[in-house]
Amino acid sequence: MWHRNVSDLMTTPAVSARPDTAFKEIAKLLAEHDVTALPVVDRDDRPVGVVSEADLMRKAAGQRDPADLMPPLYASPADRAKAEAVTAGELMTSPAVTARPEWTVAEAARTMEQHRVKRLAVVDEVGCLVGVLSRSDLLRVFLRQDRAIRDELNSEVLGHALRLSPLAVTVHVVDGRVTLEGTIERRSLIPVLVALCSGVDGVVDVREHLRYHEDDSSRPAPTHRQPA
Predict the structure, then answer these.
(1) Which helix (H) or strand (E) holds 8?
(2) Is the full-model pTM beyond 0.85?
C-alpha cells in the first residue's frame, strides 16, 4: 500500500524569519503568505523556534491603554518581556518542534498532539528547514475520493496483501467510512483485514459484516513435547 508521508503534504518552500526579523516584518510575512505562524531559523537554516499570530497579539494586548483606564495585562516579568518584544527571537516559542520528510501522517499527527502544536518545522538529515507541515496539511489525506479508497482496498489489501478472491468480500465506501461484507475462509483473518483497511489513507472508520467458513479462533495451541 502507498501512503502519503510528510514530504507529500508539507508546504514548500517554507517561509521563515530570522531571530532579528522585526515585528512589523513578521506581521507582513504572515499576511502576504496567508499563514498563521513562521519558523524562526538561524544562519544555517536550522529552526530555533516558531513565531505566531498569537505571539504578535500578546504584544498588541500588552499595549498601554491610551485612556489609562485598564490595569496592565501582564504582571510577571516573563510575560512583560514577551509583550515588549520587537524581534522574532524575542517573540518566538522555543524550541521548534520538528518532523522529518519521511515520517508518516500518523507520526506527524502524534507529534503535534504530544507537543500541543498546530504545525511542525520539517527538517532534512542535517537539521535544515525544508518545509512546514500544518494541521490542515495533514487533514488533506481525508479528501481522497471514495472511489480511490475503494480501489486501493480491493487491489492492495484484499488482492495483494491477503490474496482474497475479488468475489469473497465486497467493499463499500461512503464519506471515508468503509463497510466490508462477504465470506472469508478463516475467522482469524477478520481483525487482520480490518486493521489493514484502517491503515489506508483517507479511511475514517471500518465496519465489518463478514462470515467465515472455519472458526480457527478457538483452536487449541499446539503442544510441544519436552525432550527426554
Answers:
(1) helix 6-9
(2) no
